[in-house]
Amino acid sequence: MSMRRVVITGIGVISALGLNTAEFWAALREGLSGIAPIESVDVSKLRFHNGAEVRCYDVRAHFDDGKAHFLDRFSQFALIAAREAVSDARVSLSAALRDKTAVVTGSCVGGQSTEDTGFSDLYRFNRDRVHPLTIPRTMANAGASYISMEFGITGPAYTVSTACSSSNHAIGQAFWMVRGGHAELAITGGSEAPFSFGFLKAWEAMRVVAPDTCRPFSRERKGMILGEGGAMLVLEPLEAASARGASIYAEIVGFGMSSDANHIIQPSAEGPARAIRSALRDAEVQADCVGYINAHGTGTPSNDCTETTAIRAVFGAHANQLAVSSTKSMHGHGLGAAGALEAAATALALRNGILPPTANFTEPDPECDLDIIPNQARSSKAEYALSNSFAFGGLNAVLLFRRFDGQQCCTKSKG
Amino acid sequence: MVRYSLRFISLLERERPMPDQIAEKVISIITSVKRIPPDAISIESTFEQLGIDSLDGINVLYELEGAFNISIPDEQAKSIHTVRQMVDGIRKLIADGLADAASSRNSA
Known about the structure:
By secondary structure, chain A is an alpha/beta fold. In chain A, about 35% of the residues lie in helices and about 20% in strands. Chain A contains 14 helices and 14 strands. In chain A, helix 11 crosses helix 12. In chain A, about 60% of the residues are buried. Chain B has about 110 residues and is mainly alpha-helical. The two termini of chain B are about 15 Å apart. In chain B, helix 1 packs across helix 6 (about 85-105), helix 2 crosses helix 4 (about 55-70) and helix 2 crosses helix 6 (about 85-105). Chain B has one domain: ACP-like (Non-ribosomal Peptide Synthetase Peptidyl Carrier Protein, Chain A).
């Protein structure tokens, strides 16, 4: 099967930065952070109080009463983002196309809020039963299933769960399926809704959540800030998109994966560096063609140093020419949705020629000596951009994007 | 503060753990988390010498919070790198907790 070029023709986003893609991009461009005091959970017994929640969200604006309760919040976000992405792509899903369309989503914990509520009622109130929708609401593939049902998609559909790399792994798989001819269209991304008391307590015990805000690469960074939301992309072969006159955001040109085989929570630099190299190799693109990296950039002391080391290991002197930012400073760490939110941010950055900043930046850390676009977006002619995701468990997934405006100039190493 | 007060009233009414008891308990928790013999640990041991990584660290902190009925703030935890620092830190948290409990009883 010949390799086809794969382009993004639709984007849908619901996040702490707004209820759609336009609001998401407007906030990223302005460097506005969606991090605020957590409202959906009583935080009086928590050591941290801030999060990046989806606000002003009215479930009834998106689902009728009969349907809403079938979906956990994470599935609602998946479906809302998919609806926007499909509508944005203006693609007509014929029966033949629906049979060859893939749905690949990422989620770290699925509907664990549903589980948290149902199980705590059992334990606390000595109830002897849980709601019959507990299983279908909780399963991590519920988002993919509801997307397939909504659009009548009968091709391959599945969910990848690799903690914070989930949706980069999902998008990478979907990209490869479309590139290799195993799917003619893909709806791919991820969603997460991690704000439940039990889960926040579990993060508190990890001691990686910041008491203030997320300041990736700043000297005084104190950790990550949890975020929620969903983002979906529509991927198509370039030929099909061009034939129907679709508007193209960007091209996906490479996907690389690796595992650290090292430690269940401590990151290594070698694994991420191998994933970045693998993405470049997959695209047959030279490292010095890359102009922007949407970093994993969690804001924990160890991630940001390690990621800097990985970037320097791959890019050498070119690391000084690279612009790197962590949009987690604005939309929070979406866990299984993180890669999807950041893929949307990266594609929008290439399309608009504007690189979103690292918000909340205060002062540089000598151990993170990269150009991290502090606080203010900047215009850029970057042609290639990477988006990094590095998960607990040492599972790394990196996507490589290319600007799509007919003015490509950076030479490929071969092919 | 209220959280400390309520917890430490009961502690006040029992007995205040002696400093050497604190050290003993800290060492016993580390030996159990790291599965190493107690004589491999001294009050002067550094976490690096004991091979305590980030995951071991949060496990030890979790066990200590339970054993002493205290809450160890993240910022304080980050600055602890030796057994002695840990023992001193816990002693201070217990003392602060007792002081809080006393002042809230006086003001009540």
